[in-house]
Amino acid sequence: MVQTSSTTIRSAAGSDLPAIERLLEANKLPLVGVRDAIGDFLVAERGGTLVGVIGLEIYDDRGLLRSAAVDAGERGTGVGAALVGALIETSRARGLKELVLLTTTADRWFPRFGFATIARDDTPIAVRRSAEFMGACPASASVMRLELVPAALPGAAR
Predict the structure, then answer these.
(1) Residue 156 lies in a domain
(2) Residue 153 lies inside a defined structural domain of this protein
(3) Residue 147 has pLDDT above 60, yes or no
(4) Is 154 contained in some domain?
(5) Structural domain count, the chain
(6) From the CB of residue 66, how many other CB atoms can be counted at a distance below 10 Å?
(7) Range of the domain at 50
(8) pLDDT on residue 117
């Protein structure tokens, strides 16, 4: 669990599913696969209310970042950035080599975290088999990738 000001970021629970689905629908994001991957989702809560969500689907040693959404009233408060940062750190800790995402609206936002646009054909084959790539997201969506370098161990030489 991560605490940032009055927002708490934590692993999603099954009981969060209705609120997650409402938030995704409000942001016009696909629901397909959410229920199956809920154990790898993170949520942001403020005052006991779910205000943000981000998901991860794991394919071998690659991850698909999906379902990043923030309540309209919370945009610009840092909730989205905190969720992305937490998901990146979680992915590194799990030993993933890279994160891939599809977006139709946030291709200018994700580069601040190190994501770069790639050709759809450069996406790892395992990730291309996801529901997101198979049709849940439009073919016109931008594909972005972040190579995950392992975090340095304390005291390690640089």
Answers:
(1) no
(2) no
(3) yes
(4) no
(5) 1
(6) 29
(7) 2-147
(8) 92
- Give the N- to C-terminal CA distance of the chain in Å, as an integer: 29
Other CB atoms within 10 Å distance of the CB of residue 29: 22
* Residue from 144, 137, 145, 129 nearest 32 by CA: 137
Task: Name the amino acid, one letter, at 122.
Answer: D
Q: SS3 of 87, please?
A: helix
To the nearest 10°, the Cα dihedral for 46, 50, 54, 58? 120
The whole-angstrom separation of Cα 63 and Cα 70 is: 21
Whole-structure pTM value: 0.86
Q: Is residue 37 part of a domain?
A: yes
The answer to whether the CB of 91 falls within 8 A of the CB of 149 is no
Q: Say which CATH number the domain at 50 has.
A: 3.40.630.30
Distance CA 40, CA 55 (A): 6
H/E stretch holding 91 reads helix 79-93
Tens-digit pLDDT profile for residues 49-106: 999 999 999 999 999 999 999 999 888 889 999 999 999 999 999 999 999 998 888 8
